[in-house]
Automatic annotation (TrEMBL):
It comes from the Eukaryota. GO terms for molecular function: ABC-type transporter activity; ATP binding; ATP hydrolysis activity. PANTHER family: ABC TRANSPORTER B FAMILY, ABC TRANSPORTER B FAMILY MEMBER 26, CHLOROPLASTIC. This is ABC transporter B family member 26, chloroplastic. PROSITE patterns: ABC_TM1F, ABC_TRANSPORTER_1, ABC_TRANSPORTER_2. It comes from Quercus lobata. It is found in: Membrane. It holds the Pfam family ABC_tran. One of its GO terms (cellular component) is membrane. Residues 118-404 form the ABC transmembrane type-1 domain. Keywords: ATP-binding, Membrane, Nucleotide-binding, Transmembrane, Transmembrane helix. Its main location: membrane. Residues 438-677 form the ABC transporter domain. The chain crosses the membrane at residues 115-138, 159-185, 252-274.
Length: 683
């Protein structure tokens, strides 16, 4: 059986996997496999110290094996010693157990939530003890009345009243306390999951679908809320009541108690099968719901394109990947099977439940006739027997719901357990000042999601401090990728990038990013007011006049002032034109007063007049004596970068030419060719 893997050579299973099958040196390798049908494969390996970089690469790209059927098996995480241990902190190798899930939830509840659980648990015990005494006191009251024992009847009735009131108050307290604990759990769960997602590498977001992640944050976290809010305490309550009922039955007549116990045992066995089935069904429902969400999210976010091309109906049955309708069909199929299983389970329960009454009638009647049991004892037996069966049913039902929630929690905990990006783990060096000298030394890069396709190859160039450098090349030649590496959104596969002579990966990246201004091809604005959008990510204190100054420089102040709420206008990404968004993004970059300014097609959506002025501002920023900075400009319109100090020409991820506009035109290479095409097109 062949096991395909995105970056490892194809491995053949079950023939032995050897060290030299890995694309980096391996010091030790242990492999344990389970029968392929169970799809369990564990690999442990470690590399020598000097291959640490490689190891980190492996971890960041989450190297793993894609088993037949598409399931993904991560090879694991890097520990501090540079060892890669299979599945140490990330996705657990085995499906998680209810105990594991409960332990994790207990850790997440903490503080006040735990107090609520303790109080709720105390109330639960008192309520359960009160409730379980009711049948006994009730029967005694009835028979004392029948026997004309007025004093005993009055005493029993008072006791019954006390039991009912106590049980009512404690049940209310129990439900309230567990609901509070539940609310705290969901809040902490969402918070922890959200923060784990936010701190992942950018490559994580290339891999994971947004619909999938929002599904985990929404529906899955909500499902988990049932565990503490409902399942656990109801299981405890009914288990206590069931035990109490059983003890009472034993004291009444052990043969009768035994018969009830046999029925409970059969019920539990049936549940065991049903519970396992439900757990699997819950996982499938979770997977299919996430799939459907993902398709819907994509379609709804591209609604304009859908409307223009009139493909609303087609979108329901789109054949690329799995269409929405097909996800719904899959969901319906699992739900129908689950409903049938639920019906069968209910049928078995009801049949067995009713049969206790027949047993009571047969055994009890015979015992009364033979004088072994009194009518009062038989009445108690019937009541406690019903109680025991009911408690068994409730315990199994809540246990099944608990297992479903555990199924849903698997992916949530896998995401929570992902290690944050290396960039947030190490502190790094902060320089006194960023001069803006940039060097790319023999940089080669491939995206983690496409490891076989090199996007940049042996890129070498340097940008002097305060230089204005343009990067040009045809679409897909790797210009934006170069910037992505400079912003350290990805790490080079090979080679080094230096800022002011320091390796980029040794610098405190969050500090460095504060010194960099970036305007991308498609700037997106947050759903907040314009003022907050302009000062977004600016660490220094800025006043309204600074914001207005930046907006004026970006030629957007007039537009903002014309809005009824001016700078307080809450913007929506969809409500502004591309040019307006770009100008606000430029104002944001200007306000940071960056040492390095990166403009990736930053003026592509501007009208000619705005472009002319904004280019003037950018040029001035680059040449301003007081605030000199390095400027890197990516532009398709070559006329816009003619004035750059230097132009770097990329072709298929390689630097093919370098020089100023005149030198490159004289060279008559790719740049001159592109320039000619554009001038001809304008003529
Ligand atoms: N996140 C990604 N994952 C995988 N491949 C990517 C990713 N981003 C870009 N690529 C690929 O890398 C190559 C270079 O893309 P890049 O965006 O750097 O080109 P570009 O020169 O900036 O193009 P354009 O001028 O059209 O913006 C392309 O083949 C692209 O498909």
């Amino acid at each position: 059986m062949a096991i395909s893997c995105s970056n490892l050579p194809s491995l053949t299973f079950p023939s032995p996997i050897t060290k030299n099958q890995f694309p980096f040196p391996i010091k030790s390798l242990t492999l344990s496999t389970k029968p392929p049908k169970r799809r369990r494969l564990e690999i442990r390996f470690s590399t020598s110290k000097n291959n640490e970089f490689r190891v980190r690469e492996v971890v960041q790209t989450r190297v793993g094996l894609v088993l037949p059927g598409g399931s993904w098996w991560s090879l694991g995480e890097d520990d501090d010693d540079g060892n890669v241990e299979s599945r140490t902190k990330s996705a657990p190798a085995k499906p998680i157990t209810a105990v594991f899930a409960l332990r994790r939830m207990w850790e997440l509840i903490s503080g006040d939530g735990r107090w609520a659980i303790f109080v709720g648990f105390g109330a639960l015990v008192i309520a359960a003890l009160s409730e379980i005494s009711i049948p006994s006191v009730l029967t005694a009251s009835i028979f004392s009345a029948q026997n004309g024992e007025t004093v005993v009847f009055c005493r029993n009735s008072q006791f019954l009243l006390i039991l009912c009131v106590t049980s009512g108050i404690c049940s209310g307290l129990r439900s309230g306390c567990f609901a509070i604990a539940n609310m705290i759990l969901v809040m902490h769960l969402r918070e922890t999951l959200y923060s784990s997602i936010l701190f992942q590498d950018i490559s994580f977001f290339d891999r994971e679908a947004v619909g999938d992640l929002t599904s985990r944050l929404g529906a899955d976290c909500q499902k988990l809320s049932h565990v503490i809010g409902n399942d656990v305490h109801l299981i405890l309550r009914n288990a206590l009541q069931g035990t109490g009922a059983l003890i009472n039955l034993m004291t009444l007549s052990w043969p009768l108690a035994l018969s009830a116990l046999v029925i409970c045992f059969i019920l539990s066995m049936i549940f065991l099968f049903y519970g396992q089935y439900q757990k699997r069904a819950a996982k499938l429902i979770q997977e299919y719901t996430a799939g459907a969400n993902e398709v819907a999210q994509e379609t709804l976010s591209l609604m304009r394109t859908v409307r223009i091309y009139g493909t609303e109906r087609k979108e329901l049955g789109r054949q690329q990947f799995l269409p929405y309708k097909q996800w719904l069909d899959k969901l319906a199929f699992v739900n129908i099977r689950e409903s049938v299983a639920y019906g069968l389970w209910n049928m078995s329960f009801n049949t067995l439940y009713r049969s206790t009454q027949v047993i009571a009638l047969l055994l009890g009647g015979m015992s009364i006739l033979s004088g072994h049991v009194s009518p009062e004892q038989l009445t108690k037996y019937v009541l406690y027997c019903e109680w025991l069966i009911y408690a068994t049913w409730r315990v199994t039902d809540n246990l099944s719901s608990l297992l479903q929630s555990v199924g849903a929690s698997e992916k949530v905990f896998q995401l929570i357990d992902l290690l944050p990006s290396d960039q947030f783990l190490s502190k790094g060096v902060k320089l006194q000042k960023v001069m803006g000298h940039i060097q790319f030394v023999n940089v080669t890069f491939h995206y983690p999601s496409r490891l076989t396709v090199p996007v940049l190859e042996h890129v070498n160039f340097s940008v002097k401090a305060n230089e204005v450098v343009a990067i040009v090349g045809i679409s897909g030649s790797g210009k934006s990728t170069l910037v992505n590496l400079l912003l350290r959104l990805y790490e080079p596969s090979n080679g080094q990038i230096y800022i002011d002579g320091f390796p980029l990966r040794e610098l405190d990246i969050r500090w460095l990013r504060e010194k960099v201004g970036f305007v991308g091809q498609e700037p997106h604005l947050f759903h907040m007011d314009i003022k907050s959008n302009i000062r977004y990510g600016c660490s220094r204190h800025v006043e309204q006049k600074d914001i207005e100054w930046a907006a004026k420089q970006a030629y957007v102040h007039e537009f903002i002032s014309s809005l009824p709420d001016g700078y307080e206008t809450v913007v929506d990404d969809n409500l502004l034109s591309g040019g307006q968004k770009q100008r606000i993004a430029i104002a944001r970059a200007i306000l940071r007063d960056p040492a390095i300014l990166i403009l990736d097609e930053a003026t592509s959506a501007l009208d000619s007049e705005s472009e002319h002025y904004v280019k003037g501002v950018i040029h001035a920023m680059g040449n301003d004596i007081k605030a000199k900075r390095t400027v890197i400009v990516i532009a398709h319109r070559l006329s816009t970068i003619k004035a750059a100090d230097r132009i770097i020409v990329l072709d298929s991820g390689r630097v093919v030419e370098m020089g100023d506009n005149t030198e490159l035109l004289l060279k008559d290479g790719l740049y001159a060719h592109l320039f000619k095409i554009q001038t001809d097109a304008l003529a």
